[in-house]
């Protein structure tokens, strides 16, 4: 990974963009991809498409989603404390004591996510499962009128910190899910621009609103009419305490990309991805789908008359928290795998 690529990656990860508010990240992605692909378009919902080698008989689509989970203001009480609803799959039990950023039209407003202090809780309250309405955002407002000078109902919120490197080539961030997907799409396109005699049209997509219903990429697939598609996402790995491998399988960070095979994913495509990994001596892992992949691949598979789909994921710990953790080498290996697959596949599905 070059210094320029690292900067691109960190810019993507550090920029807040919860579902429905992806524009800041889409601008970064578009600016980068325009350097090597001039054929870009945007649909009404904000999905971005970059097309290489247009006009071929068959099209392969690779897609990552640009959005992240978050919160949204739905009520401000008389004392100026702010209550929120979730954007996507937010676990309320992890939120207390986090710092948050409220994304307003005038810029971000810092907030503390508060709950009743342990010193003031009864035994019954301590044993109660924490729910989102038990928490509030505190911006230091004097009252509701004062709070409304800074924030409004409907403003989105993100929580957690930015990119930070750890030991042994690992790094944590608020939203590897799924900025890593759009980064991999861009870097795969970059590598493919250097390939002579590319057989197929390649459509790289930075999609929207995956976290709130997994639908944005399906709209994009309807327009782009791909022959086949690969969704790039993160996958919760099982190499941490208390995760039974008998139930969740055996996946771990620093062991290569994860190829999904099973029911909805196309088995021939999965085999080609495995063959590509073996041919390039790329370490890989296998996960299974049993009817749903829970990624952008699902709506794409149902577009028009149906699309052959695959999923390649980067193994990641602590998903949907503020400390999602992965190995940076797995990112580069995923780019290498996708590039090799796209070069060699005949798209005969």
The beta-strand count equals 17
What's the CATH class label of the largest domain? Alpha Beta
The Rg value, from CA coordinates, equals 21 Å
Distance between the termini: 33 Å
Percent helix range? 25-40%
Order of helices and strands: HHEEEEEEEHEHEEEHEHEHEHEHEEH
What is the fourth-level CATH superfamily of the largest domain? Answer: Zn peptidases
Write a short abstract of this structure.
28% of the residues lie in helices and 27% in strands. The protein is α+β, with helices and mostly antiparallel strands and 349 residues long. It has an eight-stranded mixed beta sheet with strand order 1-2-12-3-13-16-14-15, sandwiched between helices.
Description of the structure:
A hairpin with a 4-residue loop joins strand 10 and strand 11. This protein has an eight-stranded mixed beta sheet, sandwiched between helices. A six-stranded antiparallel beta sheet has the order 5-4-9-6-7-8, with no helix packed on it. Strands 10-11-17 form a three-stranded antiparallel beta sheet. Helix 1 runs antiparallel to helix 5, helix 5 packs across helix 10 and helix 8 packs across helix 10. The protein has 349 residues and is an alpha+beta fold. The protein is globular and about 65 Å long. It has ten helices and 17 strands. It is 28% helix and 27% strand. The protein has two domains: 237 residues, 3-Layer(aba) Sandwich (Aminopeptidase); 90 residues, Beta Barrel (Elongation Factor Tu (Ef-tu), domain 3), CATH 2.40.30.40. It starts with a helix and ends in a 5-residue tail after the last helix.
